[in-house]
Amino acid sequence: MDATPLERLRAICLALPETTERLSHGEPTWFIRDKKTFVTFDNHHHNAEHLAFWCAAPPGAQETLVAAAPDRFFRPPYVGHRGWLGVYLDVPLDWDEIAGLVAEAYRCIAPARLVQLLPPTPNP
User: Fold this and answer.
1) Which long-range contacts (CB under 8 A, 24 or more apart) does 30-33 make?
2) Which domain holds residue 50?
3) Are 108 and 57 in contact (CB under 8 A)?
4) What's phi and psi for 47, nearest 5 deg?
5) pLDDT tens for residues 63-82?
6) CATH of the domain at 71
7) How far apart are CA 81 and CA 77, in angstroms?
8) pTM of structure
9) Over the chain, what is the mean pLDDT?
10) Number of domains composing the chain
11) Number of Cβ within a 10 Å radius of residue 111
12) Is there a domain that residue 63 lies in?
């Protein structure tokens, strides 16, 4: 049996150093050192049309990805103004790409000591 998008996202997030999960605003959310959010699940939150997740993103990434693929990415409510990225989970998915987005979200939020524990980011 295939894992659900939530199960797959959970596995990706919890594989990162010092990551914990708890509910925040009624949705599964992943924290670094149980303090700073880097990914939150969006199970049709406030009657949203799509199943998705929101994640921290480096400057400019949100605008670039939403413009390039609005069928896969969006500007999430509440945190979109801070550059966070929304990623639809009810469209065809590339889980390697999702793992990369989650790792990048982690890099944006985690302290340098924890970021150093991650494999280097490949050059584009």
Assistant:
1) 32/106, 32/109, 32/110, 32/111, 32/114, 33/114
2) 5-112
3) yes
4) 65, 30
5) 999 999 999 999 999 899 99
6) 3.90.1150.30
7) 8
8) 0.92
9) 93
10) 1
11) 11
12) yes
